[in-house]
Design goal:
It is built from two helices and 24 strands. With 304 residues, it is mainly beta.
């Protein structure tokens, strides 16, 4: 009898693991976010992961109660891309120069289009700060195509209840479809380029298959647990796995602890990138313009 699937003989069309990165040592963003920066423009990796520009992952970390209601990051600008903040535990308050503000609670996703420019601040939400507790979140930066870099800024607050959850076949687990599509279910977010963003939970020993667009850059962050891939590679809590481009399918198998993973997949944006900190444009002239506009106060006003 011949097994139809073994780790050493991946099925045709299954994507292989191209690289596996261990969790980088955490650093502080302001005084409220202890994050591991998995990739950003200053590392070669980002070239292979367009349209994604940066991933900061805040692994579970407990904060003591405080009377400091400014625990986090004060006013700072963004232009030319989008920030996607996903809260698993803990709550984050944000306010910006357009007068908008809100709270990102556990299960919520904030998809912010910085577009032509915004000033904002991100703090621990007041009651969360006073009581203290575990924060678990991530922030992903998504590039915008040239045609949308100077769009008016805006938000999509995708509350937990508005994000569709798909049950995997055979009771294997669940997929929250934040963006893109899985098993015919459309995600909650509007995106400017094709992106799949899935929050996946697999039960102990469960298997699941996913399919992504041909040529789309695809990577997986293991938030918790252990995972085996169709090509025999394995990953565990904190690992970041970049998949090759050959094939479309990704086969995942959780170990005895089950697994909680985020899957990022997107069509590359084939345009030049010029970046200076929180400004991501196509040319150096556009960066000089952004720095000038910021210096001249054209991003608006925002108090600490
Ligand atoms: Mn920000």
């Amino acid at each position: 009898m011949i097994a139809d699937r073994t780790p050493t003989l991946p099925r045709l069309g299954v994507r292989r693991v191209e690289a596996l990165y261990k969790a980088p040592r955490p650093h502080w963003v302001g005084d409220g976010f202890r994050v591991s920066g998995y990739f950003s423009r200053d590392r070669d990796l980002v070239r292979t992961l367009s349209p994604f520009l940066l991933l900061d992952y805040h692994a579970p970390f407990a904060y003591p109660p405080t009377q400091n209601l400014r625990r986090g990051v004060g006013p700072h600008p963004h232009r030319g891309f989008e920030t996607v903040s996903i809260a698993f535990e803990g709550s984050i308050a944000h306010h910006d120069s357009t007068g908008a503000g809100g709270i990102i609670r556990p299960g919520d996703v904030q998809w912010m289009t910085a577009g032509s420019g915004i000033l904002h601040k991100e703090y621990h939400e007041e009651s969360f700060a006073r009581e203290g507790g575990r924060m678990h979140m991530l922030q992903l930066w998504v590039n915008l195509p040239a045609a949308h870099k100077m769009d008016a800024p805006g938000y999509q607050l995708l509350e937990a209840g508005a994000i569709p959850t798909v049950a995997l076949a055979g009771g294997a687990g669940t997929v929250r479809v934040i963006a893109g599509e899985h098993a015919g279910v459309r995600g909650a977010a509007r995106t400017h380029t094709p992106i799949d963003l899935f929050d996946v939970r697999l039960g102990a020993g469960a298997c699941a298959d996913f399919a992504f667009g041909a040529g789309h850059n695809t990577a997986i962050l293991v938030l918790h647990g252990g995972l085996a891939f169709g090509d025999g590679h394995a990953a565990k809590t904190g690992d970041f796995v970049v998949l090759g481009h050959e094939g479309r399918e990704v086969a995942l198998e959780a170990d005895a602890d089950g697994a909680h993973v985020m899957i990022f997949s997107g069509e590359p944006i084939d345009e030049p990138i010029a970046q200076y900190g929180p400004f991501v444009m196509n040319t150096e002239a556009e960066i000089r313009q952004a720095v000038g506009d910021f210096g001249a106060g054209r991003f608006g006003e925002l108090e600490e």
